[in-house]
Amino acid sequence: MGQLASSLAHELAQPLGAIQRNAEAAEVILAQESPDLAEVASIVADIRRDDQRAGDVIEGMKALLRRGEPKKALLPVATIVEGVALLVGPDARSRHVRLAVEVEPGLPDVEGDKVQLQQLLLNLLLNAMEAMQDVPPEERRVALRARLAAAGWVELSVSDSGPGIPPGSAAGVFEPYVTTKPGGMGMGLAISKSIVEAHGGTISVDSGPSPAPGATIRVLLPAGEGT
Amino acid sequence: MSGSPVVYVVDDDASFRRAIARLLRAEGFDVEAFGSAREFLAALRPDSEGCVLADLSMPGMDGLELQGLLAAGSNPLPVVFLSAHGDVPAAARALKRGAVDFLTKQAEKRDLLEAIGRALGRGAAERAERGLRAERRGLFESLSPREREIFAHVVQGRLNKQIASRLGIGERTVKLYRSGLTTKLGISSVAELTRWAQEAGLLPELDRVAASPPTTD
Question: ipTM of this predicted complex?
Answer without folding.
Answer: 0.75
